[in-house]
Fold this sequence. Notes:
In chain A, 60% of the residues lie in helices and 6% in strands. By secondary structure, chain A is an alpha/beta fold. The longest helix of chain A is centred in the last third of the chain and has 50 residues, at 494-543.
Amino acid sequence: MDSTISVSKGCFVFKNGATRADKSKKATKRKKASPGQTGILGKEITDQPFYAVYAETWNKIQSHIDALQIESSAKTLQELVDYVVKESKNEEKYLGLVEIVPAAALLTGINQPDHLEQFDNLSHRINEQISASICLLQSRDCSTLKSAVETMVYNFIEAPHEDDEDRDHKRLRKSQCTMNQLKTWYRNNWPDASHKNPQSNEEDNANSKARHMLIVILPDFECFNAFILQDLILILSSNCTDLPFMLILGIATSIAAVHNALPYHVTSKIKLRIFKTQSAPVGLNEILEKVILSPKYAFHLSGKAFKFLTHIFLYYDFSINGFIQGFKYCLMEHYFQGNAYALCCNYSTSLTKIKALTHDDMEMIRKQLSFRPYVESINDCKRIIAILTDDDYLKKKLPSLLKECHIYFMLYRIFLEFLTVLVEDLPKCPLGKFRRELYATCLAKDVCSQPEYKECWQVLAFMSKDEFVAKISKAITQTQEFYEQEIHEKLELFADCEEIVITKLHDVKELLTKVVMAGMDAGKSQQQQQQQTTVTSPEELKQVSSRQDLKDKLLQMSKEQKPVSEFAKSVQETLDYIEKEIVMTHLGPLQKAPPLHELFVFSDIATVKRNIIGAPRAALHMALNNPHFYLQCKCCNLRENTQLLPSLPDISVMYKLHLECGRMINLYDWLQAFRSVVDFTEDDQEQIDPQIQARFTRAVAELQFLGYIKMSKRKTDHATRLTW
Amino acid sequence: MYTTELLENRYPCRTDFIRILYCMVSKSEENFPSAIYISGHTGTGKTAIVKDFLNIHAECENNRTVLVNCVECYTTKILYEHILEELVLGGTRCDNFKEFVEILRQAKNVEQSGFVVALDNADRLRDMDNNILPSLLRLQEFTGLNICVLLISQIPLEKYYCKTGVSEVISLYTPQYTKVETLKILSGSFENTVHMLKCRINDNCDAKVQRNQLVIVEQITQEFYNNYLNIFLSVFYKACRDVPELKITASKCFFTYMEPVLNGNVELSDVARLWRNIAVPLRSSLSQVYMRFDKVESEMLSNHNLEGNLADNSLRKLARAFELPFYGKYLLIAAFLASHNSANQDKRLFVKHHGKQRKRLQSVNAKAKVAEKMSSSLGPKSFSLDRLLAIFYAILDEKVGLTCNLLSQISTLVHLKLLGFVSGENNVMDGSARLQCTVGLEFILYIGKVVGFNVYQYLCDFA
């Protein structure tokens, strides 16, 4: 340090090589430390029992979702990879056309940020199968052709070394990254493949199968400037003989976008194959049905919360990622309510957790809404007192209560399957097609009283025999299958549901055989009946003497109820049974759920809404209109929103005043109004206090900064309102 | 004459062009012309011939050659350095034309005596620095080397207007191939096509079928292929004369052509039935020429059946392929309405009790719209963000909060190029940005149908 005594002379850089090593050590240290730490949360939170349960549940769900997503995207990605592999043995070479870049268009769906991960996944897969360098070229790096080419070349040459330990080799400057540089680099690294002239003779083509591919991925095709893209493709194609390029385009809209962006002379340089990924709504459905509605997890969303999350997805953004984060948020909110919620886990685990509960936790349990009806239902006074005051007594009772909840939700899920099959393909789908819709409606309201439900039942009753029988038996088999695959022997407590499920399904089956038999018998009896009626009625009518008589008779006949066929009767019986024993008992609304279901169901929709949906305008309006809401100060407690107090912040006063104005605001009037609020002296003629004027000016500037007003250029001393 | 023969074999029907080129730029003892301008349409063999010519040239004689694609040269520095790298050998830095000439001059000492610089897509030179084109044309004069600059481009030389003037250049034109010539060229790829067919059979089928099919393939003669090409060109020659494109399409369609034969349904000699089979696929692939869809076999077949009304079909397909969120659809419809209605009609269209309109002669006249005044034929007009949102709220029955999610939908639509910024892209914040809807009426009608919204009802042109 002696060489630089003076600080004032400037800054000096010391190159001693130590810094690099330090950094890498730090990095590894941090990595090692990270599993133990839990991010921003302090130890006092992470040590709580509810946190452990939360973390465990979330990890399970997350890994389940990940596995599902990988599985569902696997097929398309595999096809794509196969195509890439196949392209190494280029067919067009036989035709003497070498300047054609093979390209794959991946139709991804409109939510672009969601798909970046998918492309990472893709490049990993490609790297596993063939030798290739991959460059992910995003539109933000390609504002000019120069930067596009430079980024691409840089990514090819430098990116693999980014995390190398020794970075002794000289790094390229961006401006040195040209196509020529890439060519030299390629020749140096894979000399055997590129030394020969591809046109020389055909035997070489056999060898060239193993050429190292250079794959360029454009994840957001639509965002590229069309002209830059055209030039980029022309460059790739003109270098195609030396460098085996391949393009992968991520297209959010449809394949027509390619032809809109590229003219003929460019498309003729590429060879395009189209791949389609699973569309976002389908993907979401899969996640919902297989993960979130899975009986494996103790945590449930209430009908409203469930609907809210799917609503954001379907109506706003189609972002699966967003949905998962929203779900995670609900999960967090749920568990963070307190340690009592640690009971929301497996039955056997929750038994061990009960012991750890403190008095406060027990109080929390007692405060649950569904606890009161439970207490009221007990008719023994002593027991009521015990349960309300004695923690130990309640602890003894808890296991049975929890068990009841677990079984309730399990049965809920099982019979949801049954109902879904019944109503999913009815004409116009009054109750919806998907399990998610049914789940949300059943849990939110009493489904039996809904008009849609009645419509469904009517349609079911009108079905022909074959259809009806087929439908019910399909529902039975599906429910059974679901039970066997998901629950039987896999989840604890399965034995308790088994009996109920089997008896109910058995009853339905019996009723169904009745329906079948009824049809058989009815066939004969109906015919007989019909014969009787057809034979009798004309005779009767013939016997009639007068017109009046005929009229009476006809009226009487029409009033007489038609004999209900046995078939219709048995169908009605079956449906009634299903309604009473399955839908009413097992698919009832949340209010009918057993006591303490709040521990398992998250329904605090208002908090979630406030926190995950950003409404900046509303929030700003609230802050300016009623600062007390955020400031919580004593001075500006407003009786009503329009009230003006001098103690309000200046900007708030100004904002309220400007709400009363039209499109144009006269600054002088505004200033006068401001003064009258802030400093109400009777005397109007008096010179305006410069301090007030300064405060006014500052508030105007602040409003302008927030985008509420703009100074008008047309009219002097006026401001234009920008919001309504 | 070895060079010319080789090239003539490789590029039939271009004998004159190759000969002339060879005469002018071949022997390094003779003086090259300082510049040659080669023009002609795409797919007439300009670049390919020059490329091969240069390769052979560089091998046979003591010449150095370089081919530069001007698209790559987004800075002149790259152009210079690329040329120098090949001509002088060894990486050199070169920032401007002066240095470029200087370095070339020094190269004189080297024993190589002929230099050829070929610039593909030479029209791009016009967009570079002003001095480049004129000075490249006089490069021989500047450097004193026996150097020739070949400019290859699709546009005629007359389009190179330059303030400082361009010196005289020899210009060569490659005319489009006639039908007979095209046939000759395409029939040259007979062996390759058969070879590819064999490869395909080897890839796909099981052993027994494979053997049978390979026997059939052996029977294909050049004559049979030429017959096929005749049929093929009778459909395609009117639409497309780009030889590489025709080559690819011809070989692709040949596989479809051969399919019934390979399956054993049709005899190889039964040309009439083969023609009946291929007519529909040919027509459908005519609509896809240049698009270069690389399809799987089965898809190709299934497509032939549906492609009766292609234009209509593709639009519907496009609309169906779009999966927009519900509000996204409504925003798009609102944007369309904002683009195609004038703002002073908004009140009448979207407000329920808008009061009675007074009828005046002037307004009646104004309403009697001629076709040119229809806004659908005038194209979309721009609108502000506020108006978009106002219309959105007016056409949507339910109440939705103005949330981030909703606003971000607008930017998503812009990203997807369904909406476009007309002005003020950078100041979205102060509300002066103006947008425009870029999709057509039919598309919107389709989307409207999906969400159950009658678009016609809200369009001034139709209401």
